[in-house]
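Re: that chain you flagged

S.,

Sorry for the slow reply, it's been a week of failed gels. I finally had a moment to sit down with the sequence you sent. For the record, here it is as I used it:
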Amino acid sequence: MLTSFRSRLIALLLGLLAMVQLGTAVAVLSSLKEDNYKQGVQAIDVARNVFYLSLESRANQLTKGVGILASDFGFKQAVATQEIGTIRSVLVNQGARIGADVSFLVSPSGKILTATKELDIDKTVSSLIQSARRSGGAAINTMISSHGQAYQLVLVPVKAPNTIAWVGMAFLLDKKLAQEIKAVTGLEISFVGDTNNGQEVSGYSTLPEQDKHDLFAEIQSVGALTKKPQFTNSDKYLSLGIDLDAKNQWGVLHLPYKPWLESYNRARNQLLLIFTGALALALLFGILLARNLTAPIERLVEFARQIGLIGIEAKAPAVKGEFCVLANTMMSMQNSISLREEELTNRAFHDLHTGLYNRSAVEQYLNRELPREKGYLVLVDIRHFKDLNNMLGFDNGDLLLLKVAERLLVWGSHAVMQARIAGDQFLLVFDEEITSDECNSLSAFFDEAFIVQGSEVLLSVAVGVLPLEDTILSVNDAMRRLDIAVDQAKEEPGGVAFYQAGQDESHQRQLRIIGDLSEALDSGQMFVVYQPKVSVASKDCNEAEALIRWRHPELGFIPPDEFITLLEHAGNIQLLTHWVIKSVLAQLNIWWSEGHRIRVAINLSAHDLVNEQLPGMIEKALKENNLPVEALALEVTESAVMKDRLKVIQVLKGLQSLGIHLAIDDFGTGQSSLAYLRELPVNEVKIDRAFIQYIDSNKGDEFIVKASIELSHSLGFQVTAEGAENAEGVALLGQYKCDKIQGYYFSKPLVAEEFLRWQQAFKPV
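Prediction finished late last night. Pasting the structure tokens below so you have them in one place:
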């Protein structure tokens, strides 16, 4: 491959020269070859004319010789008296004298009377005599064919004074004629005729025997040679056919083409030598020219390569002309690139608003420093900054961040790095120990208001501190533990928290629980248990609450409060809800088909209640399982209702319109206890276990439960108490007209088979 400019330039020069010389050579050689051919054609045309002249001259001589015989008085007398013996003797003698191969006498009607040799020419001679009589009886000179051979025939009338006979003599086209023509023209000649076996030399050929055999084996039609000369014997001869005006008889002239080819080959070889020499000179000239032309380009290429190397300041080469302009331009480009790189590097590792380092710079630094035995990372999180930013506007929000950065620089002036790693988070890196008092002083550092556009803004911060140690191996480990510390700081009264050993493991457990949900649902790790709800009035149990249990193969039993809260925070609680609805309805389908009319309550989360498609999904699921709406109840918490009250109420109304029994769970623990209870489209209120568990020993709980039952009844709601654990509490609930009771006093949550057995054997005390 030609990759360098110099090699491509040399190749271009050589290519152009080669194309020119090749075109010249082709034109010259074509011209020489065409001239050689034309000269050969001209020579063979001359030979053909000589051949015709030779035949004509010979015919005249033969006609005179035969005419002398026809004029002889004695011969006429012998013809007139029909002395055949005398006639035959004269024909033999006269034929031998003038070299005739056959002599014969023909009657005026065209019949051969006598002949010195038998020839199959009776019809031919008769036809010639008839034609001659019509034209006046002149002598005849023509070519005939007999036994595949060509003869030159002369017929002269014998007159006394009228024509009493015709005397004829035939002369074979033989070696003598061929040699005469070859001597005059310098060309080989062959006499050819057709036989039953194809074309063959019937007379004589001056060609060598092998050439003669090869030539006529190659030629398919001698007649085609009469139109245009053709090369034969692998271009050894240029051959031209001559029609002898005799049936299937031709003469063929052969021009030996070897001398012409040798001349052409000499000229071709000379041109090749000239062509090779010119290319060699062009190569040398091209190399010298390319070296001279490409030297400044190579210096510029090296200059460009040095510009591309990081950390090297290249010097422009000394070049002239247009290359000097290019070198100066490249020098300007180098300066611009350096400034641009410096700017990009600064932007890549610095925050645009505050000028502090950014997260990328921190990660690069920690990747280089970790693991290390000492040092501290302090993460400052501005609480509710998004709300402040929306209230102040983005410009003022950026100004506030700048003031925060300035204040942090004052407090952490001895830090090895100060960075803004997120919109509302700042990180400080210290080599020495950071104490709790110092962190508390940092929190107090924000007690003073910030002045933004003449307004005072107070900020609340959470400070998470991570002591560095050998176990922290990566940036991910450090940042994850810092986030854990900040989350803990948000729960602390002082807003400061140090990372404690084991918190990361707890965090990893939470991530594991969230990540393993899908597998747990598919592999049967999760299952549903049913806790009975006993009717106080009818003393029976036809209702239950569906509760979820998770037995992890590695983590063991995971409490529902733990994984449900995590799934709600992670946003995939709806996946669990759909699984619970599907499992419970499948079990209800079995119970109802067996005649057990049990209603089961399912708990819904806040994420489920803002899903406007929930009513339609539940209606479809009930139809698929052939269940009436009486088979299902839904329980929602007060906190879930408060998440988006208007949308939740709309979804609850949709469920209520289907006829589904709705209940408020954990009543009394949320914010909506009385204010919104009357607005909710529910059928039942469940009093939280916190008030039921010690109702028999805590008068305050007893009064609250009594008031809640009376209030709910006055609003038309049924009341269920959950968490009843002793007979005294159950008795008080019955006394205050509670509708249903659930708790360990009656039964713990049971799997479906155990619940059915318990329900059938239940006998209230």
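What I noticed first: Residues 368-501 form a domain with the Alpha-Beta Plaits fold (CATH 3.30.70.270).

Talk soon,
D.
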